[in-house]
Amino acid sequence: MTERDTGAAVAAIRARAAHSPSIGVILGSGLGRLAEEVRDAARIPYPDIPGFEKSTAPGHAGELVVGRLEGKDVAVMSGRFHYYEGYEPQAVTFPVRVLRAWGVTTLVVTNASGGLNPAFKAGDLMVMSDHINFMGMNPLRGPNDDRLGPRFPDMVGTYTEELRALAHEVDRDLREGVYVAVAGPNFETPAELRMLRGFGADAVGMSTVPEVLVARHMGMRVLAISTITDMATGIPGQIEHVTAEAVLEVANNAGRRLADVVKGVIARL
Ligand code: HPA
Fold first, then answer.
1. What are phi and psi of 207, to 5 degrees?
2. For a substitution probing ligand 1, which of 111, 135, 206 has the most ligand atoms within 8 Å of its CB?
3. CA distance 77 to 215
4. Distance between CA atoms of 168 and 125, rounded to whole angstroms?
5. Whether domain 3-268 has CATH 3.30.70.260
6. For 73-132, what is each residue's pLDDT tens digit?
7. pLDDT of 47-68, one tens digit each?
């Protein structure tokens, strides 16, 4: 495991940004636009922050945008690191460690996912009520730093009830459900989709859970919202072919509404 120093990363950010946000936002596929709405912004490319990797996934810009949104200081990660890109779990989650070390205590995470719940449709937004970690890895594996959090973190109530309620207050048509994270990068086989649905998951995606595990480890408040970009039913006769292009298009179209939800929640914090 490469040792990454949150102190050096925080110092690099502080040298470029005067704000001290308590709110952090991680933007998933198609949500880059929200970062453009941040005012009075310092935009720090990831390669300028020691310990950050380069973001290679489509629809992910790769910069930390620090400034004002809805009258609050915010730190917006425009682009995230995915396990499927080949990064180590600790590299994927390092930005969350850095945000917390810098003073962020509330984390809003967005992503794109495939809908497993047959009542969902492409374009729906789902507040995550819980998750299943089916990635086959855990960023908390390895020596535990007891100053940051416990060896065996409690995961009950990880997705903060109060924040979920705020999101529903902002947008009455939000879905809610369980997100199962897979490693990717391939989309699931029909048999895998049926299995994941049998697990009790409502949506499947390739991100978010590592960041949330680390955020939870450090006692952060977490809100996660997923754009259902396609219906991944695995049901014979209803099988769609999922493409990255279609996922991005739906995510981009739903982006405006998701941005409004995130802004509405931030305004109420
Ligand atoms: N599966 C996994 N990840 C995804 C999907 C999907 O169907 N859609 C968007 N991200």
1. -145, -160
2. 206
3. 14
4. 11
5. no
6. 999 999 899 999 999 999 999 999 999 999 999 999 999 999 999 999 999 999 999 999
7. 999 999 876 665 556 899 999 9
User: What separation in angstroms does the CA of 127 have from each of 98, 108, 130, 241?
Assistant: 25, 11, 9, 25
Identity of the amino acid at 37: E
Cβ atoms of 204 and 131 within 8 Å: the answer is no
Tell me which residue has tokens 């794109």: 112
Residue with tokens 């310092």: 42
Residues with CB under 6 A from ligand 1: 112-114, 187-188, 204-206, 229-230, 232, 242, 247
Q: What share of the chain is helix, strand, coil (3-state, %, to 5)?
A: 35, 25, 40
Task: Please give the distance, rounded to the nearest whole angstrom, from the Cα atom of residue 244 to the centre of ligand 1.
Answer: 9
